[in-house]
């Protein structure tokens, strides 16, 4: 399909494309702002402390980064998450709580951030701090030495982190344009009706001999206000004609 053909289809279905896109954007904005539940985040930071002082600085850094990656996997392990549920007395499953926890190693550092997203800011901070403590305890239990330490505890942050209205609206805008444009081309592909001379040339590749113009009936387009006036004028003309005929016959 050539560029001119694409533009012709878009121009023909432009109204439909705009309506679908506007509806998608408005729906996304309303859902993000008023319907979807707000999400709050509690974040705590841990640091890995290598204890082998005989290692070189480079080796120590590499070892620390490897440990950070290892501990990031340990944060969402069943012993840690199950211990958090037991300590806080939560009525949730391990799988459900695991989905709320995210462990992210900071690049080129020995730092590890643990983020918990929940519908309550206080709950998110409480769970994040407890996850950090349970992770430290688990590392100490497994390795026999305490080389993981909490350096920044989570606080109650009342500012929600989700849903992200601007991001959702932007995604809805792109999807609305894509879906409406695809629907426009589908309708154009299924439409085999002929309404203009351009359709004849495009569909049949035939020479156009003539075009029958549209004939408008003037009597059908008269308004209700015009019709009584014309009726009165006709009656007046008929009366004048009768009077003239009577006068002429009287003279005879």
Fold and architecture overview:
It is elongated and about 95 Å long. It is an alpha+beta fold and 252 residues long. Among the domains are: 3-34 and 163-190, no CATH class; 37-152, Alpha-Beta Plaits (2-Layer Sandwich). The chain has helices at 3-12, 14-35, 57-75, 78-88, 94-100, 121-143, 165-190, 197-204, 226-251; strands spanning 40-48, 101-105, 111-118, 148-152. Strands 2-3-1-4 form a 4-stranded antiparallel beta sheet. Helix 2 (14-35) packs antiparallel against helix 7 (165-190) and helix 4 crosses helix 6.
CATH topology (level 3) name of one domain = Alpha-Beta Plaits
- Beta-strand percentage range: 5-15%
Assign the structural class, choosing from mainly alpha, mainly beta, alpha/beta, alpha+beta, or little secondary structure. Answer: alpha+beta
Mean pLDDT, rounded to whole units?
82
Count of helical regions: 9
**Assigned CATH architecture of one domain:** 2-Layer Sandwich
Give the low-pLDDT segments. Answer: 54-58, 241-252
Strand order of the largest sheet: 2-3-1-4
Distance between the termini: 85 Å
Helix content: 55-70%
Order of helices and strands: HHEHHHEEHEHHH
Radius of gyration using CA atoms only: 39 Å
User: Count the strands?
Assistant: 4
Biggest sheet details? 4 strands, antiparallel
CATH first level of one domain: which class?
A: Alpha Beta
Estimate the global geometry from the Cα principal axes.
elongated
């Amino acid at each position: 399909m050539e560029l001119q053909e694409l533009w012709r289809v878009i121009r023909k279905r432009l109204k439909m494309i705009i309506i679908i896109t506007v509806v998608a954007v408005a729906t996304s904005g309303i859902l993000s702002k008023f319907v979807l539940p707000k999400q709050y985040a509690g974040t705590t930071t841990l640091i890995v402390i290598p204890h082998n002082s005989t290692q070189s600085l480079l080796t120590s850094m590499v070892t620390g980064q490897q440990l950070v990656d290892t501990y990031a996997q340990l944060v969402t392990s069943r012993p840690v998450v199950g211990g958090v549920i037991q300590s806080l007395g939560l009525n949730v499953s391990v799988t459900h709580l695991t989905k709320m926890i995210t462990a992210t190693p900071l690049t080129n550092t020995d730092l590890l951030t643990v983020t918990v997203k929940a519908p309550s800011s206080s709950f998110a901070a409480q769970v994040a701090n407890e996850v950090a403590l349970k992770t430290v305890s688990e590392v100490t239990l497994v390795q026999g030495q305490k080389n993981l330490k909490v350096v920044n505890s989570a606080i109650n942050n009342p500012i929600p982190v989700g849903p992200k209205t601007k991001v959702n609206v932007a995604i809805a805008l792109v999807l609305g344009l894509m879906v409406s444009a695809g629907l426009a081309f589908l309708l154009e592909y299924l439409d085999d009706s002929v309404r203009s001379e351009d359709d004849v040339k495009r569909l049949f590749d035939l020479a156009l001999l003539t075009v029958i113009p549209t004939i408008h009936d003037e009597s059908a387009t008269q308004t209700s206000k015009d019709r009584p006036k014309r009726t009165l004028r006709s009656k007046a003309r008929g009366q004048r004609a009768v009077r003239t005929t009577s006068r002429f016959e009287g003279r005879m």
